[in-house]
Every structure is written in structure tokens, then in C-alpha cells.
Amino acid sequence: MNPPHVSPLAVFFGAIFTENILLALYLGMCSYLAISRDVRPAVGLGAAVTLVLAISSGINNLLYWRILNPFGLEHLQFISFMLVIAAVVQCLEMIIERYTPRLHLALGIYLPLITVNCAILGVCLFMVIRRYDLVQSVAYGAGGGIGWWLAIVALAGIRQRLQTSRIPRGLQGPGIALIASGIMALAFMGLTGIIRTR
Amino acid sequence: MPQGRDAIRAFVTALWKENPIFRQVLGICSTLAVTNLLANTLVMVAGLIYAAAMSNLTMSVLRYRIPRRIRIMVEVLIISFYVIILDLVLKAYLPETSRALGAYVGLIITNCILMGRMEAFASQNPPLPSLLDGLGSGVGYGFILISIAFFREMLGFGTLLGGTPLAVTVLDYSAGWTRWVLMLVPGGAFFMLALVVWICRTLWMRGQKEPVA
Fold first, then answer.
1. Greatest pairwise CA separation for chain A in angstroms
2. Number of CB atoms found within 10 A of residue B165's CB
3. How many independent structural domains does chain A possess?
4. Would the CB atoms of A185 and B186 count as touching at under 8 Å?
5. Interacting residues of A26 by C-beta distance below 8 A, sequence separation 6+
6. Whole-angstrom Cα distance, residue B201 to residue B198?
7. Which helix (H) or strand (E) holds B32?
8. B212·A112 Cβ contact <8 A
9. Does B212 fall in a domain?
10. Beta-strand (E) ranges in chain B?
């Protein structure tokens, strides 16, 4: 394995801005559209996704390069990544419930949803394809999570404003949210090329 | 044969009345990512229909044996099983497409459509309607994916099925056609999907009296 010569910091900021996981790679769209009607739950979900991403990308990186790859078991990556993600989500839920019940109340309903959020599996698969090492992977996971957080909170803010505007009936709800995301994606495209991530 | 009619009804409902994309707006991650080339989209759609139908069938057969508490995990494992097969088949027979699709084949596992249909339909219905429900969801998802890809590739590259032996040049640059670069960048996919959602929802609402949630 030869990791690319990119500093983890570049990977981190690249994942937030130039290759935003949501606006450029289209990952985690379902919960993005479903839970962006209001800012507060969007903030909670973003925090939970970031935490799970940073942890599971690190564990999955070790799992892939230390166990699956040396033993020629790469075809098991999907199933083992999913198990790791589910386990991380489950543990995190128990820890948060035990130590910070208030945070658990805020995040509680979103945590189980994260297991099937494509952003998590997506980041883990991209980190393998790009051959990131452990530090780069954690940076990529954390950056990807923060980028997703940024996008969902921004969209929630826009949608709160849209509640009072007159929108054609067929376009209400997801339609207008998609157009808003499209414009955000164009705005983020302006940042392309500032950071080299590969 | 009432069971057969139920099964057909399940197929039609899944295809139009509860179309996963414009009705529920689910599973659009891969919709957007793979739709700038029609050929890749066709492969992705075939894979998704297969995975949706097979995992719905499996879930339905096992529906009395899976404890409620762990069923989400079991659902994920069932889907993963079929997606791994799909991934290996693609790597063996269509290596270039497999490379172009990259991580998005694996992401079928977390496609909300599959989970959603297994949870909502297959866990409560017999195998045959479940199989057809999976097929219907897959086809309903597929036709939207294909129509988006059709316009994105045509306007963006000027070709259809580019990169395959069947490639057709529809809009020629040398004849003065300007590429719509907007269609190729991520933003274009969002606009295209919004347009499809808009059109389909408007048509769909004609048949409904109450407003769409």
C-alpha cells in the first residue's frame, strides 16, 4: 500500500470544501432532504454523522489494510464495513445515553438512522479507493462529516426561509430543496482546485 | 387467482403510486452520481433492480424467523450479500464500468429504497408480491435515472451511450453545438432531478385530490 503524498490537513479541508461529500459526491442525500426542514435537528444530525464518520473511517481503514487486504478478503469489505459502522453507532448510542442523557435526547432518534446513511459507507469506500493511510482516513472522515454538517445546516436555514415564499405546488418540499442544493453545489464549485487532495 | 392480482397491484403501486424517487424522494445518492453517462446508468439500474428484487424476496421468505430487534442489521446483511455478488460479477465481466462506477455499486447497500421496501413491504407480505414490489421499485427508480442520464449525456457530451459500441452522436460540436457544461457538474444533476420531481409530481397530483405531503 502506498498512500498518496497529501497532508492530512489538505485531505481534511478538501473534504469539507472542494469535494464536499454531499454537494459533489451526492452522499447522504436521503437524510439530508428528510431532516432539513428545521435547523435544530439538522445541527444534531450533523454532529452525530461527523462523530460516527471520524471513528468508523479510522477503524475501517485498519480493518481493510491490516486484515482484509493481507488475507485477500477484499470482497468482504462491504459486509465488514457495514458491521463496523453498525457497531460504532450502537456503542456510541449506549455511551451517549449513559453519560450525557441530554445529548441523547437531542440525537437519540437520529443515531440509529446513521447506520444506513450512505455518507458513512461512502467515505469508507472512497478512502480505500484513494489508498489513504490511517491519519489521512480519519482526517477524511472528520472533514467529510463537517462538510455534510455544513451543507445540511445551510439547507435547513434556506428551507426555513422558503416556508413563507410561494412555490409552485409540484415543486414544494423536495423539489425546491434540490434546486437550492444545486445552487449551493455551484457555489462550492467555485472553490475547486484550491486544495490538492489526491 | 387473487394472489396473482395482488402481486400485480403491488408492482404497479411500487412503480407509480409510490415511486421511490418522486413520491418518497429516497435513494437519490446514486441517482445523481452515475447519471452523466447513459451506459453507466443502465448498468447501475440493472444492478439495483436485481438487488431490490432479490433482497425483498429473501426478506419475505425469512420474515417470520427474524427477531424484530435485529431486523435492520439482518436487512443490511441480506442486501450486502447480493451487492457483493453484483460487484464481483461487474469486476469480472465489465471491469471498465466497474471502475467508473467505483464506490457507487457498494453504496447500493445503503440505498434507502432497498431498506425502505424491505421494512415496509417485504417484512409483512408473502414472497411473490414482495418480489414484484422490489422489481416495481427498481424499475420505477430506473426509468427516472435513465431519463435523467439521457438528457445529461445528450446535453453535456452531445452523445448517447458514449464509450460503448452503440455510441451515437446526437448533437455535433463541429456543427456549432455548445456543450452544456452545467449538465456535467454536480449542480446539473440537482437541477435535472428537481425538474423530474416537479414534472412527475404535477402529473401525479392530477390523479389525487388531497395535497402531497
1. 59
2. 5
3. 1
4. yes
5. B28, B29, B30, B31, B32, B33, B186, B189
6. 5
7. helix B29-34
8. no
9. no
10. 159-160, 168-169
Do A122 and A26 contact (CB within 8 A), yes or no?
A: no
The answer to whether position A38 is within a domain reads yes
State whether B103 and A29 contact (CB < 8 Å). no
Q: Quote the cell numbers at residue A16.
A: 469539507
Count how many residues are written for chain B: 213
Residue B148 lies in a domain: yes
Give a yes or no: residue B211 inside a domain: no
Confidence of residue B22 (pLDDT cuts 50, 70, 90): low
Alpha carbon distance B134, B53 (integer Å): 4
- Quick one: closest CA in B to A89, which residue? B73
A45: containing domain: 8-189
pLDDT the model gives residue B50 = 92
Chain A contact probe: residue of B21, B22, B25, B70 with most A CBs at under 10 A: B25
Number of domains in chain B: 1
- Cell for A39? 435547523
pLDDT band at A171 (very low <50, low <70, confident <90, very high): confident
- What does pTM read for this prediction? 0.82
B51 touches chain A (CB under 8 A): no
Q: Is A47 a domain residue?
A: yes
Tell me the three cell numbers of residue B27.
435513494
Domain carrying residue B74: 2-206
The ipTM is: 0.80
A20-76 pLDDT, tens per residue?
Answer: 888 888 888 877 887 777 888 788 888 888 989 999 999 999 999 998 888 888 888
